[in-house]
Structures are given as structure tokens and as C-alpha cells.
Automatic annotation (TrEMBL):
Subcellular location: Cytoplasm
EC numbers, comma separated: 2.7.7.7, 4.2.99.18
Function: Repair polymerase that plays a key role in base-excision repair. During this process, the damaged base is excised by specific DNA glycosylases, the DNA backbone is nicked at the abasic site by an apurinic/apyrimidic (AP) endonuclease, and POLB removes 5'-deoxyribose-phosphate from the preincised AP site acting as a 5'-deoxyribose-phosphate lyase (5'-dRP lyase); through its DNA polymerase activity, it adds one nucleotide to the 3' end of the arising single-nucleotide gap.
Native species: Desulfoscipio geothermicus DSM 3669
Name of the protein: DNA polymerase beta
Gene Ontology MF terms: class I DNA-(apurinic or apyrimidinic site) endonuclease activity; DNA binding; DNA-directed DNA polymerase activity; phosphoric ester hydrolase activity; zinc ion binding
Keyword Ubl conjugation attributed: yes
Helix-hairpin-helix DNA-binding motif class domain residues: 51-70, 91-110, 126-145
Record-annotated DNA-directed DNA polymerase X domain positions: 1-318
Domain Polymerase/histidinol phosphatase N-terminal: 342-421
InterPro entries hit by this protein: DNA-dir_DNA_pol_X, DNA_pol_lamdba_lyase_dom_sf, DNA_Pol_thumb_sf, DNA_pol_X_beta-like, HHH_MUS81, Hlx-hairpin-Hlx_DNA-bd_motif, NT_sf, PHP_dom
UniProt xrefs under Gene3D superfamilies: 5' to 3' exonuclease, C-terminal subdomain, Beta Polymerase, domain 2, DNA polymerase beta, N-terminal domain-like, DNA polymerase, thumb domain, Metal-dependent hydrolases
Needed cofactors: Mg(2+)
Main subcellular localisation: cytoplasm
DNA sequence: GCCGTTTTCGGCCCGACTGTTTTCAGTCG
């Protein structure tokens, strides 16, 4: 069993216990354990065998025993019993905003409702308001949230989609008759929401395609095939989005890769370009219209070159003008992960992070960064154990001590200071003035109207000590709408006051989104791409933030944390 | 559930907001 699968079991146990009304701390212990497992960088199996699991914070005797059960038999008794007792669809119901364990249980026990669809029907029929403690407003809110949930049910946030695609990739790779596998489609273009998980396999022998498709469908995450062709199959999946596999011979690979990567509009534009130049381009190949000769191609670059175009990175293939730019040789020198020299927004165990400052720094050094800013939460964010002024200053003392250790790495003192509901900041100016890097973010009062919430952020931008506005719209992909902020106005103000906007790279956020990042670029506002990591593993999520920047056509010069340390410090001290 | 250089039991997580209520329960970050 892979680490993620084991973590998943514990998350599910926590959800089910929550429904049962179990004690809060027990539920939290399971969630913590799940998070700890998901964050391990070695296989659980290995650590278990070596007796090293008990060293992992959050894993105790009971949970380790359950991990043992899972490794031995693929299941554990508690999980199995809970699943038999409680319909799984109830946890989906509980994911609706406003519907926690108590209300879900009430609805289940009083009305026998177990699915979102039944709940929708009951709410529309006015049955929910009749329950004790419920009313018309809650009922309406449920109807609204259900319709929103249904609308986006078939689209998966990029991070989750990519995890699943990689698991399927691994599965296919083990097949003897498969020569190579690539994840393609929306995921290869790094689209923030994914309509379909697409994979492309190269078969050693064209006659084996059908057999490979059959074997693919045996994957436990996949259901019935919804559609099938000689070399393609689409199936429903456990995760709500369709999954598609295409199996092609080697000589067809580059063309099918180009076609399946899309976007549809980009490929159509390429077809038109090809036609005008005497080629016929489709997913099977590119053939001269004059002599029926197939174009000699051994990469995607070759195809673009034959069409007189610069190579277009998958992230740009949205028909937003990239083909014209490629024809003129004017595509940007896109930002790459390797251009990033440090992460400017991370949390440690001083507030709600899981790792120590040293561990985060160690990981950042291993990634080849030359700096890292420690930006724990501020006083008001009690749930995250936000740092009081005294603890913040103590932390900075510790960081200064730590910095004596290296010549080639620098830890910036920092803070993620809350923008409070009235627009003031959660630390006084004289504290902020002593900090290398100040990120100001909103963590409360999400429901304020556009005017109020925009004015709050504007006030933060106008504060001389603030360097970066963190996750500027507050959205959680697929979970929470952005707050009502007027982003255009924020961008204009940032331009006036020389402030930096964050691309929060957490795949749950991707905030700012690519559209606004593009607007920021056009307005001359630099961005900082930060992971907001709460444990060292999640420093790896930088790649998601980079993908947003690439999709917005950003070059290294648009990004604050591509600067070498001395330049960065000069900018921050200005 | 986990955790412990004071503790093997008793902490661990707190406050705002909302909607339902006549003084509070449930949800959320």
C-alpha cells in the first residue's frame, strides 16, 4: 500500500468518527496521523519494517498497529466496521458548507437521508426547516451549495488530479507490453481544474493495444468503460472525473501527444497553420498534401519547427495568442522551477506548521535554494497558535543565531500578519519594522462585502512595512469561493505602492489565479511564488505556483523570488 | 487518538459568526 492510500484510510476514519459524534481530540489524532503519513518521504512499509514509525510525531501504538493491519491485509478492522455502519455518501454530504456532523446526523436519523441527491429533494420540499434547530435560511443555503457542488463535481483540482494520474501512470508502467507512458491532456497543460485525466501509452506491438486497454480497466479506481475505440478507452472513476487511456504505436506518439495535450482550440489552430503550408495534421501523423509523405518527426519541437513556429510549452496552449507569437518568434522566455531561488512563505511548529525551523531550512537547502523566509501566523489567529509579539521576537533571535551557521544560505525573519476585520494589522508598526519580510493576509471576515474587504486589503497595501499580500483572493479550489475582493483595484494599488502580490502555490489555492497574474504582469506588479508550506514535504508544491506563472506568460524577471539574495534584500529594505 | 526532562493521567482548542432561539448550538477557519 502506498503512503497516500494509508493516509486516506485514516482521513476517512476521522470523517466517520466525526459523524458518529466521537470526541474531538480522537478525531484530530487520526487527521494528524494521516497528515504525518502523507508527509513522509519514505514508504511506510519500509519504516514499519524497520520499527521507525514510532519516531514519527503523531503516530502512537494504536495507529501503528492499524498501519500493520493495513500493510498485512490491505484493510483494518475499525475502518471496515465504520464503513459497514455508516453509508459512505454521508461523508460527502458533510462536505457541504454549513452541514457538519451534528446536522448530518440529525437529517440522517430523522429523515433517513444518506445522499446529496436525497438531501436536495428534501430541502426543496421544505422538509429540512421542520427539523429542530433548522430553519428556512439553512435550507436555502443547502440548496444553493448543492447546486454549486453538482456544477463542479466533474472537475478536479489540479493537485488531486495529478496525484491520481501519477498512480495510474505507475500502474501502466508495470505492464510488460507498454513501452512508455505519459500523462497528457488538461494535466499536462497544468489547467487549474481538470475535466478528464488523460494518459497516453506507447505499445510495443500495435496488436497489443486492446489487451492493454482491458488491463487498464482492471484498476481498482476505475469503473465501467463509458466509451471505447480500437486504441482508446474512457471510463468513469471513483474520483468523479472520467479517465481516458490512448494506446498508440511509437511512430504515432508525438502526434497523438500533441493532439491529446490540446487545448482543442490550440490544436485546431495548428491544423490550420499546417494546412496552409501544405500539410495535413491529425492525431495519427502529419502528411504532405503533395506527395503523401509523412513528416519525419522525433519530438513535439520537430512538429512546431516544421510549421515555422517556436516550440510552444504545454502551459501556453490555450489559443490566447501563443501561435501568432510563436510565428513571430516572440514567445516569452518562460519562468522555470530552476529559476526560483527561495520560498518566502512557510510555517513552522512555532505556529501551526508540523516541522521545526531547522527542518524547513534543511529541506530548502536540499532543494538548492539560497534563502527561506519563516513567516508564521500572528497573534489573533488563535487556532493556528499565532505568535505574540514576544514569541515573534524570540523566534527572530533564534533565526539570527541559526544564520551564523552558513555562508551560502540565509533565513529571513518574517511574519504572515493578519489583516483584521477592521483593516488594521495584527502587529504594530514598530514590530513589523524589525522584520525582513512581511506578508499580510486575510484569515477572517471572509463574508464581508466587496467594498469593505477591498478597503481592508488596500489599507494593508498602504502600510509601508508590508511587502507581500498573501493569497489575495482567499479561494480554496473546489471548496471555497474567493472573497468578494476587487482584484483589479488591488493590482492598481500594488503598482502605485510598489507592493508584491503572492501566487500561493498550494494546489488547494493557486491564488492569485492565472488571469489576475497576467493582469499583474501587464500592470508591472511583480509576484512572489510561495508554497505556504506547513511541513517540509509541501515545499515541493512550488511547481504548482510556477505553472500558474507560466500559464500567465511570466518570465523570471516578473518574479521576486528569482532574485539573488543581495538583490532581494535590497528590494525588501527599500 | 497522542504525548510527557515537572506528569502514564489529564491536557490537547479558541473565538467569531450565523441562525435559531428567547439564552444557545452548530459550523468554520
Amino acid at each position: 500500500m502506498r503512503n497516500m492510500e494509508i493516509a486516506w484510510v485514516f482521513y476517512e476514519i476521522a470523517d466517520l468518527l466525526e459523524f458518529k459524534g466521537e470526541e474531538f481530540f480522537k478525531i484530530r489524532a487520526y487527521r494528524r496521523a494521516a497528515r504525518a503519513i502523507a508527509g513522509l518521504d519514505r514508504p511506510v512499509k519500509e519504516l514499519y519494517a524497520g520499527g521507525a514509525l514510532k519516531e514519527v510525531p503523531g503516530l502512537g501504538k494504536n495507529i501503528i498497529a492499524k498501519i500493520g493491519e493495513l500493510l498485512d491485509s490491505g484493510e483494518c478492522r475499525l475502518h471496515k466496521e465504520l464503513k459497514e455502519e455508516i453509508p459512505a455518501s454521508l461523508t460527502e454530504m458533510m462536505s457541504l458548507p454549513g452541514l457538519g456532523p451534528k446536522r448530518a446526523r440529525l437529517i440522517y436519523e430523522q429523515l433517513g437521508i444518506t445522499t446529496v441527491t436525497e438531501l436536495d429533494k428534501a430541502a426543496r420540499a421544505g422538509k429540512i426547516r421542520e427539523l429542530p434547530g433548522m430553519g428556512a435560511k439553512i435550507e436555502q443555503e443547502l440548496v444553493r451549495n448543492i447546486s454549486r457542488m453538482k456544477k463542479q463535481a466533474r472537475r478536479l483540482p489540479l493537485g488531486a488530479a495529478r496525484e491520481l494520474a501519477l498512480a495510474l501512470h505507475e500502474y501502466l508502467e508495470q505492464m510488460v507490453k507498454v513501452e512508455a507512458v505519459t500523462v497528457t491532456g488538461d494535466i499536462r497543460r497544468w489547467a487549474e481544474l481538470v475535466d478528464s485525466i488523460d494518459l497516453l501509452a506507447v505499445v510495443r506491438n500495435p496488436d497489443d493495444a486492446a489487451e492493454i486497454l482491458d488491463a487498464f480497466l482492471l484498476h481498482p479506481g476505475l469503473g465501467e468503460a463509458t466509451w471505447r475505440d480500437k486504441d482508446r478507452v474512457q471510463a468513469v472513476s471513483r474520483w468523479g472525473v472520467p479517465v481516458e487511456l490512448i494506446a498508440v504505436p511509437r511512430e504515432q506518439y508525438w502526434f497523438t501527444l500533441l493532439w491529446s495535450t490540446g487545448s482543442e482550440q490550440h490544436f485546431r489552430r495548428l491544423q490550420m497553420t499546417a494546412w496552409r503550408q501544405g500539410w495535413r495534421l491529425d492525431r495519427f501523423g502529419m502528411v504532405s498534401r503533395r506527395d503523401r509523405q509523412t513528416a519525419p518527426v522525433s519530438s513535439e519541437e520537430d512538429i512546431y519547427r516544421l510549421l515555422g513556429l517556436q516550440y510552444v510549452a504545454p502551459e501556453l496552449r490555450e489559443n490566447y495568442g501563443e501561435i501568432n507569437a510563436a510565428a513571430r518568434g516572440e514567445l516569452p522566455r518562460l519562468l522555470e522551477l530552476a529559476d526560483i531561488r527561495g520560498d518566502l512563505h512557510v510555517h513552522t511548529d512555532w505556529s501551526d506548521g508540523a516541522c521545526s525551523i531547522e527542518e524547513m531550512v534543511q529541506q530548502a537547502r536540499e532543494k538548492g535554494y539560497s534563502y527561506l523566509a519563516i513567516t508564521d501566523h500572528s497573534t489573533s489567529l488563535k487556532i493556528a497558535r499565532g505568535l505574540s509579539r514576544e514569541r515573534l521576537l524570540a523566534q527572530h533571535e533564534k533565526i539570527r543565531e541559526l544564520n551564523k551557521k552558513w555562508e551560502d544560505f540565509y533565513v529571513l525573519t518574517g511574519v504572515e500578519v493578519d489583516i483584521l476585520a477592521d483593516g488594521s494589522l495584527d502587529h504594530p508598526d514598530e514590530v513589523l519594522a524589525r522584520v525582513d519580510l512581511v506578508i499580510a493576509s486575510i484569515h477572517s471576515g471572509f463574508k464581508q462585502d466587496k467594498d469593505r474587504i477591498t478597503r481592508r486589503i488596500l489599507a494593508a497595501i498602504e502600510n509601508d512595512h508590508v511587502d507581500i499580500i498573501g493569497h489575495p483572493t482567499g479561494r480554496l479550489l473546489g471548496h471555497r469561493e474567493p472573497y468578494a475582493v476587487d482584484v483589479e483595484e488591488i493590482i492598481e494599488a500594488a503598482a502605485r505602492h510598489n507592493k508584491v502580490l503572492e501566487i500561493n502555490a498550494s494546489p488547494d489555492r493557486l491564488d492569485l489565479s492565472e488571469f489576475y497574474v497576467q493582469l499583474a504582469r501587464e500592470s508591472g506588479v511583480p509576484v512572489a511564488i510561495n508554497t505556504d508550506a506547513h511541513d517540509r514535504r509541501r515545499l515541493d508544491e512550488m511547481v504548482y505556483g510556477v505553472s500558474v506563472a507560466r500559464r500567465a506568460w511570466l518570465e523570471p524577471s516578473h518574479v521576486l523570488n528569482t532574485l539573488p539574495l543581495p538583490d532581494l534584500l535590497r528590494v525588501l529594505r527599500k
